[in-house]
Amino acid sequence: MNYISNTASETASNAVIETILSRSAAKYFDTNAVLSDDQIRDLVRIGTSAPTSFHLQNWRFIAVRTPEAKARLHPIAWKQPAILDAAVTFVIIGQLADASTVPARLAPVVEAGIMPAHLVPEWEAPARSLYDNQPQRQRDEAVRSATFGTAAIIYAARSLGLGSTPMIGFDAEAVHREFGLAEDEIPVMLLTVGPERSGNWPQKPRLPVADVLSFA
What we know:
Shape: globular
Family: Belongs to the nitroreductase family.
CATH class: Alpha Beta
Oligomer: single chain
Organism: Rhizobium leucaenae
GO molecular function: oxidoreductase activity
CATH topology: NADH Oxidase
Distance between the termini: 16 Å
Order of helices and strands: HHHEHHEHHHEHEH
Pfam family, one: Nitroreductase
Domain Nitroreductase: 20-194
């Protein structure tokens, strides 16, 4: 059996790991800061590199960044100050897993020469077996995919010196209605992102690994 050998100092000096370990939820944002369209696009591009089942990519992101859009979101997001203060708040949307989209999602993969075309039906068939006529499983996958994408944006933002906070404090039905989500779309969470101002806490201590890990 092969083991990867890493000392504690090597782990601590890893930039990716340091980004993850130093992240904390930002409550206070620089209200004068803005993010450009390109900066927002880059964050979402990185977010969409996260894994999804059968390459479904069943997510969508609404970047709420204009004063008008923030004013629409603020009252249906429990009037949380970060909605108004942060440079952008993403409405993170998960789409119900739909196996019929597998061929279209895999077409660019085939075109890029990564997957041979004859494998596409071999992916679609088990996807249909997993999700067709399984509403709870479809919804679970929507939430899973959206959460993976959100996590990628959170750590990308941290690596760029930006704060972020995922939030579930909002009226889901009102967000669905106000921002025109489709019937198969779920507003999974909100994610505020932007330059921080002073007053935010560092990352809070976590449970010891021994309390949450067992070996089998």
